[in-house]
Write a structure and sequence with these properties.
single chain; alpha/beta; Alpha-Beta Plaits; Rossmann fold; Glucose Oxidase, domain 1; 4 domains; seven-stranded parallel sheet; seven-stranded mixed sheet; 20 helices; about 25% helix; about 25% strand; disordered N terminus; glycoprotein; serine protease
Amino acid sequence: MRLPSPTLCLLPFLFLTLVQRPTFASIKPYVVYFGGHSHGPKPSSFDANLAKDSHYEFLGSFLGSREFAQDAIFYSYTRHINGFAATLEDEVAAEIAKHPRVVSVFLNQGRRQHTTHSWSFLGLEKDGFVPSSSIWKKARFGEDTIIGNLDTGVWPESESFSDEGWGPIPSKWKGICQNGNDPGFHCNRKLIGARYFNKGYASIVGHLNSSFDTPRDEDGHGSHTLSTAGGNFVAGASVFYMGNGTAKGGSPKARVAAYKVCYPPVDGEECFDADILAAFDAAISDGVDVLSVSLGGNPTAFFNDSVAIGSFHAVKHGIVVICSAGNSGPVDGTVSNVAPWEITVGASTMDREFPSYVVLGNKISFKGESLSAKALPKNKFFPLMSAADARATNASVENALLCKDGSLDPEKAKGKILVCLRGINARVDKGQQAALAGAVGMVLANNKDAGNEILADPHVLPVSHIKYTSGVAIFKYINSTEYPVAYITHPVTRIGMKPAPVVAAFSSKGPNTVTPEILKPDITAPGVSVIAAYTKAQGPTNQDFDTRRVLFNAVSGTSMSCPHVSGIVGLLKTMHPTWSPASIKSAIMTTAMTQDNTMEPILNANHTKASPFSYGAGHIRPNKAMDPGLVYDLTVDDYLNFLCALGYNETQISTFSDAPYECPSKPISLANFNYPSITVPKFNGSITLSRTVKNVGSPNTYKLRIRKPTGVSVYVEPKKLEFKKVGEEKAFTVTLKGKGKAAKDYVFGELIWSDKKHHVRSPIVVKWF
């Protein structure tokens, strides 16, 4: 850990020596979490000061004095989350963790950051017009819903956040515009609030200069995600004249607020737990309705997970929290943000692409994608070479094939089109290395793991990104031809591609490794080549070499799919202000689709059939979600009972929830948790579980349809549910029985309640034990 300055540290050092406290112990930033506060929705400054004082007294009892505690604590969470972040010796942290008041103590660990045509693809508009049946019309475009975003901040000058024509800020807003050391940063009636939190980051990297004291987005990620969720209508948006259209967020009439918690990477991590918790604490008090969180880390126990802790307290106050699933796919068991009170979003394609063709000398062509601004002369062939053959003398063949920094020989690469392999270093960096070596273009070939997933990036030279099998064919052509040549066509924009959606290869997958009884992700949404607002502090590739500046950029990731759902949640909050966060989640999940635009099952990027571990309940359908018919509701008590079933004790849960709690006298089964999906990860051949649905539509009778998982019979009682009024609840049981030989892997089915107008679908996921 780097200290802020030797002079400032000298006196504390001498005093510590005098009282014989060791100075050589390992000191790290920790979060000490006590649970919730009892202050209510509007804690006074006096209450906050009392909470802060209690933190100093508590830590002082371990460190020897209140003064030591004040020096160590860099955040006190005093609003709705009770705890503090402090630099502590490992031994002290271990002692604190034993205290009965403490729910958890965990390291201030890092987490990573995990869009114009997508809303048309989702059915909210058609040919530039908004039909009367669109949720946009029904929900008044998310009018006066407040969407908060935990990310890299915001570029306030973007037209996506202009307040021209906007009315007064809603009276429920209690937040601030914290411009810190950036007098040029201003909020307005659209961008109604902004804050920055960097003390947790500083505890890792050392002293920060004053340039960090601003919510301004120097990265682009935060502006992109926030404008996707709630950005204005902005006509003429494009990336280098491609993807031209009107940019807009899911709730374009929503008010938005930025909470900056992510900064330049430290060992690959950009967002730290202490800052994330502080942002959640502030956002709850500020009065947001929706929180969009496009970041995450490795799945961990809920009480050691800042996003899980913060989102629980938010949901407790009626705020819906939407999180990205992560970008570690296609490996199984990689999904992050797995708490049941969060909506976890995977990423998939839409029906738009930016094709760029590689045409070989033998007239065979291969379709790729790109957003390269530069173009090669039309139909002019150039020498084609494997990047491995352009290897610099001191570089390995592997590094040269990957087009890594310093691996290419300019004498060999000059004037050629290089074929580089995807992997390890950034896709756009490969193009830069090829350009620095004098190449005129690059073919970016997928490795086997990436398969058919090709992405449109704003490369600095002409590039076409091709799928794995195309790459194999091109390498074969190079190796079998004396003078291999090719040209690359300039990318264009095409709409209506099939099949779509396809699950992105990078999208993290289930099963849930923390609580496998809960299916994660919950839903999938567009997350590939999404065009949205950007920063002017960075080029579109976010690389130091890129001096270009854009108003909008195309970016891919579950970070981009998450705010799509956040924007839709904003619409649902406007339409149904009394619905609980769980009801909104249920409406989104049970109305999702599992077929693509060819009416075939949704595929993975490698063209295999996708499963609920890829897409959760399916691909989001906003117009269906506004009228789901029935919902699976959950209360805060249900979440506490869920924690009890996981083995957390009553004292921990009471402290976590900030209210007395006793586990139910009857043992709780996780199988009976009223989630909109059914997952049985340890199936022994027979199980009966229960669910309850609430009518949120007109009175009607729902009948049952079942698609059985392979080798499992499904029996439901009753087989018909009759509802006579809105708000009425009905319970049913589901019995699963094995038949035949037990399957070695997970099997999938679905349960659908239908009144012919509504089709309330729940995935069934089963694994023999």
